[in-house]
From TrEMBL:
Its main location: membrane. This is Uncharacterized protein. The keyword Transmembrane helix applies. The keyword Transmembrane applies. It comes from Thanatephorus cucumeris (strain AG1-IB / isolate 7/3/14).
Length: 99
């Protein structure tokens, strides 16, 4: 009996770790759309080291004024639409007013 328990537990642990590792870099369903991601890297492999503004502008044309990027395990929400920025700032400023 114990001869089979150790391999099963070890195998289950390896499978669980593999699934968790592959989930790093994936976009959560509640996030705005964005470019396709790669496991572990997210969008890091597509993000340029120079002239990043050109790539961000290209993605804004494709995905709209609000989109998300996965940077490894982290997430960046990019807002390029002026009206969306204004609306967000107005909402945030209203929540900080003290009466």
């Amino acid at each position: 009996m114990s001869n089979i328990v150790v391999p099963v537990v070890l195998g289950s642990t390896v499978v669980w770790l593999a699934i968790k590792t592959m989930a790093i870099g994936k976009r959560e369903l509640y996030l705005p759309p964005g470019p396709p991601t790669a496991p572990l890297l997210g969008n890091l492999h597509e993000f340029p080291k120079t002239e990043a503004h050109l790539k961000l502008t290209e993605w804004a044309r494709i995905y709209g004024g609000i989109y998300s990027l996965k940077m490894g395990p982290g997430t960046a929400i990019v807002i390029t639409d002026v009206s969306a920025v204004k609306e967000l700032m107005d909402k945030r400023s209203q929540s900080t007013l003290v009466e």
